[in-house]
C-alpha cells in the first residue's frame, strides 16, 4: 500500500525544523541530510516613469525528502535488490545487500539517495519505518511547528485533509513532473507556486542543497 507525504506549501515558512529534527534523530553530521528545504523565488521589480515601483516578485519553500514513489527509479536501477519497497510501501536500501555502486543516487530525480561516505553504502529517507511500524509519524512530521507536513497512506491523507487533498498536485516548480516516478507526494500549492508555473523562477539556495 503506497505511503507518502502531504505537504502544505501554503503553510511552510522554510524554518527547517523538519530537516534539523531529521538530522538530530539520525545523528547526521553536516554532510548528510535526508530532508532538505528548497527556497524558490522569481519575478522582478519595475520602476515606472513616475518613479513608483511595482513588483511581481514571489518566493516559497518546499520541504522534501524521499517520496517513496510508486514507480521508484532507484529500485529499478539497483543491481542487487538492496533498494527495495518494504511491506509498508516505504523505499529504502538494505545495507546487507548494498554494494555502494551509486546507481540509485544517479537515477532519483529528487536526489534522495546519497552514498554515506563512512559506510560506503546508499543512505536515504526510509520514512522513519521503525516509527511508522510502531504507529508513530516520521520525526519530521512531528517536528513541523506549522503542521505543514503529514504522512500516511493515500486514503489516510485524504481522510485527514478532506478540504485540501483533492486540490493537491504531485509536482510544483522546480520538482520533476509526476510522470517521472509517480511520487507519493501530495502538495497543496501556494499562490506563489502557481505563479511560478510561468517558468521564470530559480532555486535560491543551490549551494546549501549541493546543486
Ligand atoms: S524519491 Fe527517489 S529515492 Fe525516493 S522512491 Fe522516488 S526515486 Fe526512489
Ligand atoms: S548504491 Fe546500493 S542501493 Fe544504491 S543502487 Fe547500488 S547497490 Fe543499490
Ligand atoms: S518544519 Fe514545517 S514550516 Fe518549517 S520548513 Fe519544515 S515543513 Fe516548512
Automatic annotation (TrEMBL):
Gene Ontology MF, one: metal ion binding
InterPro entries linked to this entry: 4Fe4S_Fe-S-bd, 4Fe4S_Fe_S_CS, ET_IronSulfur_Cluster-Binding
Top-level lineage group: Bacteria
Alphabetic keyword roster: 4Fe-4S, Electron transport, Iron, Iron-sulfur, Metal-binding, Repeat, Transport
Domain 4Fe-4S ferredoxin-type: 3-31, 58-88, 89-118
Entry annotated with the keyword Electron transport: yes
A Pfam match: Fer4_11
Xref: SUPFAM superfamilies: 4Fe-4S ferredoxins
Keyword GTP-binding among UniProt keywords: no
Name of the protein described by the UniProt record: 4Fe-4S dicluster domain-containing protein
Amino acid at each position: 500500500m503506497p505511503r507518502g507525504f502531504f505537504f502544505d506549501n501554503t503553510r511552510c515558512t522554510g524554518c527547517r525544523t523538519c530537516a534539523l529534527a531529521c538530522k538530530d534523530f539520525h545523528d547526521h553530521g553536516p554532510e548528510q541530510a535526508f530532508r532538505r528545504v528548497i527556497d524558490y523565488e522569481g519575478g522582478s521589480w519595475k520602476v515606472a516613469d513616475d518613479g513608483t515601483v511595482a513588483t511581481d516578485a514571489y518566493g516559497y519553500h518546499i520541504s522534501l525528502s524521499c517520496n517513496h514513489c510508486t514507480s521508484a527509479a532507484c529500485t529499478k536501477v539497483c543491481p542487487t535488490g538492496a533498494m527495495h519497497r518494504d511491506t509498508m510501501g516505504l523505499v529504502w536500501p538494505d545495507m546487507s545487500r548494498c554494494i555502494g555502486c551509486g546507481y540509485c543516487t544517479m537515477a532519483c530525480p529528487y536526489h534522495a539517495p546519497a552514498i554515506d561516505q563512512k559506510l560506503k553504502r546508499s543512505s536515504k529517507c526510509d520514512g522513519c519505518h521503525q516509527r511508522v511500524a510502531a504507529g508513530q509519524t516520521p520525526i519530521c512530521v512531528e517536528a513541523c511547528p506549522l503542521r505543514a507536513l503529514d504522512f500516511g497512506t493515500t486514503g489516510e491523507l485524504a481522510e485527514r485533509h478532506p478540504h485540501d487533498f483533492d486540490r493537491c498536485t504531485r509536482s510544483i516548480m522546480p520538482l520533476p513532473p509526476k510522470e517521472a516516478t509517480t511520487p507519493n507526494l501530495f502538495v497543496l500549492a501556494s499562490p506563489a507556486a502557481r505563479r511560478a508555473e510561468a517558468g521564470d523562477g530559480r532555486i535560491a539556495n543551490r549551494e546549501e542543497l549541493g546543486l
